[in-house]
Amino acid sequence: MATFYLDRNLAVRVADTLRRRGHQAVRTPLAPASPDYAHLLFAALRGWILVTHNGRDFKLLHGAWQTWPVALGISGWPRHTGIVVPTQYLRWTEERIADELDALVASGRRLADALYEWRASTGWALWTPP
Length: 130
Fold this sequence. Notes:
This protein is of the alpha/beta class and about 130 residues long.
């Protein structure tokens, strides 16, 4: 089972559904106006997988998280536990989102330091910075 950190743009019912399936699911305890980087750091320091619909901003943060420590010669930089971006354009129910998160975790794919986004053509796809 996994621990998911759901940011403010996912329905509360998604957390409830994930909990019923045996996962731990935390809705953002940070203030609603907290910046996205604060959410990523909060989840990473606790070892939680961040789930968001805000793929554009979190791709930028993921790319920075991956490249800056190397460029600056920083060793021991903490890894984040994963960023997952389910689609919001297909109007999935909370059950469908939970189904897809279950499938991703069960797939055995490495989530740490990775960003996965749902693509209608391929399903979960690993995103890498350009």
